[in-house]
Design goal:
The chain has about 190 residues and is an all-alpha fold. The chain contains twelve helices and no strands. It holds the Pfam family TetR_C_36.
Length: about 190
Amino acid sequence: MTADALITRATPADVIRRARRLWLKGERIHLASLSEELNIGRATLFRWVGSKDLLMGEVFWSLYDALRQDAINRTSGQGVDYVVGVFRYINSVLLHSEPLRRFVHDDPEYALKILTSSQSTLHSRTVEANTRILQQQVDAGFIHPPMNLGSLSYFMVRLAESCLYSDIICGREPRDEELEDACTAVQILLGGKA
């Protein structure tokens, strides 16, 4: 076997994993450094992940999707209680996430852009994933929301964001009490009783 055969080539997944590790440690992510570290050309890196904003969206989605799956696996029940339970679990973990709090504190404008922008890959995927959960509960006959599921999902995501990023949006520290109020609002939106 030649020395060249022993060298493993980086993949797009390697880029996301490395960027995720850097972010979780609180380090800044620079595409040029990632390119050098993974021994790939900058053009290749750009072709794989696009801009830094798109890469950050992928990093956050990879973290969020794992958290969402964990919430689904840990939440029992069905219907309104199930949907609210998944919502509560995800957002409680995010509310107390030290890396997320640090990211929001260090660069609030950039954080809001990546985390909440309607053009963000994270925001749109979060709404889509939430819509799938709602649709599953509707299809099973457990909930009958009084509004369009896409709109309902969008409002639920915006409610969560208003709690999680209230320090940036309105100068109020995010609190567990506000998350509980958001859970009550979601329950009402789903047609449940407060």
